Structures are given as C-alpha cells and as structure tokens.
C-alpha cells in the first residue's frame, strides 16, 4: 500500500466516522467533488488540499505513514 492509498483510506474512514459526505468535504475545501475524488484516487497530487484535509479531519501524518 502506498502512502497515497493509506491517506485515502484514513480520509474515507474519518468521513464515515464523522458522518461527513465526500461532497461536503469538497465544499469545505472549496473544490469540486470530482477534484477531491481525483486526489483520493491518486489521479492528482493536490498537496495543498491534503494539508487542509488533514486539518479538517484532524489527521496526523503519523496516522498513515
């Protein structure tokens, strides 16, 4: 499993636990849901958005590294 896959997995888990839909997270990030999907599916880097995702969902880098 790559770091990007681990990150995506923990994001999806946190979304489920918090009851937040992926499109709602995209709205919080002020990006299109498709762009968020591309980030989580490793089709786009989105490093600046990954930092904001970690902040919103309270994810530490150590959680997936």
Automatic annotation (TrEMBL):
The record's Gene3D superfamilies line, in alphabetical order, gives:
lambda repressor-like DNA-binding domains (1.10.260.40)
Q: Which InterPro entries match?
A: Cro/C1-type_HTH, Lambda_DNA-bd_dom_sf
Q: Which residues form the HTH cro/C1-type domain?
A: 18-65
A Pfam family this chain is assigned to: HTH_3
Q: What is this protein called?
A: Helix-turn-helix protein
Q: Which GO terms describe its molecular function?
A: DNA binding
């Amino acid at each position: 499993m790559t770091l990007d896959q681990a990150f995506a997995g923990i994001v999806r888990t946190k979304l489920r636990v918090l009851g937040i839909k992926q499109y709602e997270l995209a709205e919080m990030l002020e990006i299109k849901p498709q762009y968020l999907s591309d980030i989580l599916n490793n089709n786009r880097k989105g490093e600046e958005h990954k930092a904001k995702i970690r902040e919103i969902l309270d994810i530490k880098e150590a959680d997936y590294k």
